[in-house]
């Protein structure tokens, strides 16, 4: 297969390129290197796709597009909301327009997010999404993904939507609890924001393995959750990270969660398991050990 990956130098994109290359696919990749600098093997172009829908690739040679390019990271949602919203929307629209000109395109895989279901404790692959306060900067990212999903549903593109749930790995960037808490512990800052809020964390190798497997088997116009079913509080995550770094019995400063942050978020992965019954993601404790190592 001839596969194009956008956002190819980031956490998810770089691992996706690695696994696709290992499987023998011909991978073309593009990234502006703003949130990652892992240059994937194969044909890579550094470029900013917010500026044009004329991507420097041969349309007729592309079989699958994995569109991952976006500004992510919870801290960015609050600190750079207008940049997150405008950047992500421009990137999506440009890549969608490029995809329309690919005559042999079999699947367009869109990386969406668990943020789409932030109003729900148990997250289905539902088209019903809600925003409780349009002024909340957190929703800058969610709104950009709502625009992307809405566009695809009303397009003729052969789309598949993947909603990722808290993916982490060695290339995790600032704004994710794993990166932030590792750095905080190293600096001697022992603080947990939203200590009782729960999430399910997915090691990036498992997330991409599941993505490729599901995309190869699923129908068009499907939305699939990619995540784990190990539910942990932010305090539990911080303790796992602390103990992995050699810190024990820490008296954390507990801080109220940010405005709009879900109290509980657990993915329904029944569709994922239908396509991939053998899927068995590692636990967070093992994943953190790998990240720190």
What does this structure look like?
The protein is α/β, with parallel strands linked by helices and 293 residues long. Helix 1 (11-22) packs across helix 6, helix 3 runs parallel beside helix 4 (139-153) and helix 5 crosses helix 7. Strand 1 (2-6), helix 1 and strand 2 (26-31) form a beta-alpha-beta unit. A seven-stranded parallel beta sheet has the order 3-2-1-4-5-7-12, with helices on both faces. It is globular, with a radius of gyration of 18 Å. It is built from nine helices and 15 strands.
Keywords:
293 residues, alpha/beta
Can you describe this structure in just a few lines?
The protein has helices at 11-22, 74-79, 81-100, 139-153, 177-187, 204-217, 234-244, 270-275, 284-292; strands at 2-6, 26-31, 43-46, 64-67, 107-113, 122-123, 159-164, 167-168, 191-193, 198-200, 202-203, 222-226, 231-233, 253-255, 266-267. By secondary structure, it is an alpha/beta fold.
**What value does the Rg take, in angstroms?**
18 Å
Strand content: 15-25%
Largest sheet: 7 strands, parallel
Number of helices, where a helix is a run of at least 4 consecutive DSSP H or I residues: 9
Helical amount among residues, as a percent range?
A: 25-40%
What is the 3D form? Answer: globular
Work out the number of β strands: 15
Q: Low-confidence segments, ≥5 residues, pLDDT <50?
A: none
Quickly give the structural class: alpha/beta
Q: Can you give the mean pLDDT? A: 95
Strand adjacency order, main sheet: 3-2-1-4-5-7-12
The secondary-structure element order is EHEEEHHEEHEEHEEEHEEHEEHH
Q: How far is it from the N-terminal to the C-terminal residue, by CA?
A: 34 Å
């Amino acid at each position: 297969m001839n596969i194009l990956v956008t956002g190819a130098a980031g956490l998810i994109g770089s691992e996706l390129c690695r696994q696709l290359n290992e499987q023998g696919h011909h991978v073309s990749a593009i990234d502006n290197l703003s949130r990652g600098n892992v240059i994937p093997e194969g044909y890579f172009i550094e470029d900013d796709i917010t500026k044009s829908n004329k991507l420097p690739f041969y349309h007729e040679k592309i079989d699958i597009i994995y569109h991952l390019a976006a500004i992510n990271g919870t801290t960015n949602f609050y600190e750079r909301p207008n940049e997150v919203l405008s950047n992500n929307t421009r990137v999506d629209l440009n890549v969608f327009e490029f995809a329309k000109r690919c005559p042999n395109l079999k699947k367009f895989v869109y990386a969406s997010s668990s943020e789409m279901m932030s109003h729900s404790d148990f997250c289905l692959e539902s088209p019903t999404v809600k925003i409780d306060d349009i002024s909340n900067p957190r929703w800058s990212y969610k709104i950009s993904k709502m625009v992307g999903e809405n566009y695809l549903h009303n397009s003729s593109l052969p789309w598949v939507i993947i909603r990722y749930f808290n993916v982490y790995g060695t290339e995790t960037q600032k704004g994710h609890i794993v990166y932030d808490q590792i750095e905080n512990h190293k600096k001697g800052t022992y603080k947990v924001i939203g200590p009782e809020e729960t999430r399910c964390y997915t090691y990036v190798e498992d997330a991409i393995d599941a993505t490729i497997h599901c995309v190869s088997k699923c129908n068009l116009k499907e939305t699939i959750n990619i995540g784990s079913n190990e539910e942990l509080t932010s305090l539990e995550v911080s303790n796992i990270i602390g103990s992995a770094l050699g810190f024990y019995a820490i008296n954390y400063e507990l801080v109220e969660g940010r405005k709009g942050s879900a109290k509980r978020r657990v993915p329904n992965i029944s569709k994922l398991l239908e396509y991939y019954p053998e899927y068995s993601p590692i636990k967070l404790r093992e994943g953190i050990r790998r990240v720190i190592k």
